[in-house]
Design goal:
Blueprint lengths: L8 E5 L4 H13 L4 E6 L18 E4 L5 H11 L3 E4 L6 H6 L1 H22 L4 E7 L24 H20 L2 E7 L2 E2 L7 H13 L5 E4 L5 E6 H14 L5 E4 L3 E4 H11 L5 E4 L11 E2 L4 H7 L7 H27 L1
Parallel strand pairs: 1-2, 1-4, 2-3, 4-5, 5-6, 6-10, 7-9, 8-12, 9-13
Antiparallel strand pairs: 9-11
């Protein structure tokens, strides 16, 4: 751990999203002297409700990353020492349904951000938060997946994230921007319902209170390696503190599990009878099957270790959605008068 960079101002793109809001909470809770700015679009599909606990502690800037002048304004306001670029359309299945929209948003937002930094001659650390989806279909001989594994995308979303990766590499090489790229593997994130773990937990909680009869699922055969979102966001902070510019780092947990086996874990933790049913609408045209990372490079330079066990993460996930289920029951009762 040769570096420990002094960071006073941070800018989080996509701060009101599921990951950005957790990152914001982490920085505010443990890094008292850091001032947090966040970019949120006025027409964003993300909800500022994710920021309920911290809304009075952050500086929210209305900005559209697809508008260069808007980004320049946000950078002039925040003057960041570090930028966490989390803003992306991240729903893999949706990328098959609206590929042009996802590609345009994810690529243009990134090129505009990097270009704005270049034009302003700012020199912040920029973390491009990428994804294991860029590796796509990986053969067993290449497991665990290293950063040097070739790209083999299986979705428009993955293609857009590869482009972000390559843009980061280009701007580091050509303009010496201080760019670090992290590729996050699957994580527990209660606030993001398009992830299989969150979707399953929500449906279990809904069934337990009578709001739903059957749990619907897609492909159960894929293997994922899971990390708690709270650990994942701490890893992001460590990345800007210690990782080398121009380098790529895998981040992931220790627990590898088949999606179907994870569903069984949730069912066993429920006191209700959980009936399940395959929903063809939840199946992707093609799916990644083996997502098991080699994280030695990141762990060595940051000395990162997960703080939450698999069991603690599952409990956190279920508690979140059981509370949301109770809120939904109360809301429905109130609306009935």
């Amino acid at each position: 751990m040769k570096f420990n960079r002094k960071i006073k101002n941070v800018l989080i793109t996509g701060i009101s999203g599921s990951g950005g809001s957790y990152l914001c909470e982490y920085i505010l809770s443990l890094q008292k002297r850091v001032k947090v700015y966040g970019i949120s679009r006025w027409h964003s599909t993300s909800s500022n409700s994710n920021l309920y606990n911290v809304i009075n502690k952050i500086n929210l800037i209305e900005c559209d990353l697809c508008d260069l002048s808007s980004i320049i304004n946000a950078l002039n306001i925040s003057k960041p020492d570090a930028i966490f670029h989390l803003a992306s359309s991240a729903n893999v299945k949706a990328s098959f349904e609206t590929p042009s929209s996802v590609m345009n948003n994810n690529i243009m937002s990134t090129i505009n951000l990097l270009e704005a930094v270049r034009l302003l001659k700012f020199n912040p650390i920029i973390q491009i938060c990428s994804t294991s989806e860029v590796y796509g279909q990986v053969s067993k001989k290449d497991i665990p997946i290293k950063e040097t594994n070739q790209f083999n995308p299986t979705s428009p979303y993955a293609v857009s994230k590869i482009t972000q990766d390559l843009l980061g590499k280009t701007y580091f090489t050509a303009y010496k921007l201080k760019i670090i790229t992290t590729r996050m593997f699957a994580y527990f994130n209660p606030r993001r319902t398009d992830l299989f773990a969150s979707s399953f937990a929500k449906q279990v909680a809904w069934i337990e209170v009578g709001l739903q009869k059957k749990l619907l699922h897609g492909n159960l055969d894929s293997v994922r390696t899971l990390i708690d979102v709270r650990d994942a966001m701490r890893a992001y902070w460590l990345a800007v503190q210690y990782c080398k510019f121009g380098e790529v780092y895998n981040i992931g947990g220790l627990k590898s599990i088949k999606v179907g086996d994870f569903l069984k874990v949730l069912i066993n933790l429920s006191n209700s009878k959980i009936l399940t049913q395959l929903d063809p609408k939840l199946m992707r045209p093609v799916d990644v099957t083996l997502q098991i990372p080699n994280t030695n490079k990141f762990n060595k330079i940051t000395r990162f270790k997960t703080q939450y066990s698999f069991e603690e993460s599952v409990e956190h996930l279920l508690e979140f959605w059981r509370l949301e289920a109770k809120k939904e029951v109360m809301r429905l009762k109130y609306n009935k008068g």
